[in-house]
Design brief:
42% helix; alpha+beta; globular; 434 Repressor (Amino-terminal Domain); 5-stranded antiparallel β-sheet; Beta-Lactamase
């Protein structure tokens, strides 16, 4: 781990980012060139003290998940992310096998959707980035590790993950998740993330095995969904999907028809704290 070079790199990338680049207001008293440390720390989902020590060259060696969070928070390009990993004493992630780097252009779109429920997910349903409104609607979906990062894996192994949908919609949602996973498996093949999720679920869930045997294929989310929220009740939302063809990642944006009760409920998400539970999107 090259602490001095890592510190210099982090400071340089922070100075290069402006508040407008990440959806933050500039304010009238800003004197810092670029973002403040605490702003970057918040974007990375870590404490300001932890991030500050890294910039001062005296922090611990960051883990790979922590480096991934820093790469997203600083809107690094793929080459910059690889450089970050090497400075921190890790091998650069295999670009062919790792799909968790979000392109800066996609992150800029997410930053401008601050008050709208939106999230970036991989083709196996691993949530990489959420807006605050999405966290208020769905909970923090980025905190999971291992196979639990996958929406479809949690759906069949953790009953509480289904609470976001009305019970009468569960059968259809389960079938859709399996169909999307099959499409991802066909694209990735043996050794892919989708393959690992499939093998684990076949060993753990009879329900999944039954649905898997039906060979239903679908590679996109349904546009209209009904969701449940503990404070807002049931909402009917439209889910627009933007596909990044380079990575296979999806940007999901949840909206509702203006002037409807569902639209009013979505607007209330901006004043609600993030949900403590973490159901599937």
């Amino acid at each position: 781990m090259d602490r001095p070079q890592l510190a210099d790199f982090l400071r340089a990338r922070r100075a290069a980012l402006q508040p407008e680049d990440v959806g933050l207001p500039r304010g009238s008293r800003r004197r810092t060139a670029g973002l403040r440390r605490e702003e970057v720390a918040a974007l990375c989902g870590m404490s300001a003290d932890y991030y500050g020590r890294l910039e001062q060259g005296r922090g611990p060696q960051p883990s790979e998940p922590m480096l991934g969070a820093i790469a997203r928070g600083l809107h690094l390009t793929l080459a910059e992310r690889d450089h970050l990993f090497r400075l921190a004493g890790h091998h650069a992630p295999d670009r062919a096998a790792r799909a968790d780097h979000v392109a800066p252009a996609v992150l800029r779109i997410v930053d401008r959707l601050h008050d709208t429920p939106a999230m970036v997910v991989t083709e196996t349903g691993e949530t990489l980035v959420q807006t605050p409104a999405a966290m208020a609607l769905l909970g923090d979906q980025t905190r999971f590790t291992g196979l639990d990062r996958s929406t479809v894996f949690r759906w069949f192994t953790d009953p509480s993950s289904r609470d976001v949908y009305p019970p009468e919609d569960h059968d259809e949602r389960a079938a859709t998740f399996v169909a999307e996973l099959r499409a991802a498996y066909a694209r990735g093949g043996a050794g892919s993330r989708a393959h690992r999720v499939v093998e684990a679920l076949l060993a753990r869930s009879d329900e999944f095995a039954t649905l898997w045997a039906q060979h239903r294929v679908d590679d996109k989310h349904a546009r209209t969904k009904r969701m449940q929220h503990p404070d807002l009740g049931t909402l009917t939302v439209d889910c627009q999907t933007l596909l990044d063809t380079d990575t296979g990642q999806r940007l999901l944006v949840f909206t509702a028809t203006p002037g409807t009760p569902d639209s009013d409920k979505l607007a209330l998400l901006t004043v609600l704290a993030p949900r403590q539970s973490t159901p599937a999107p």
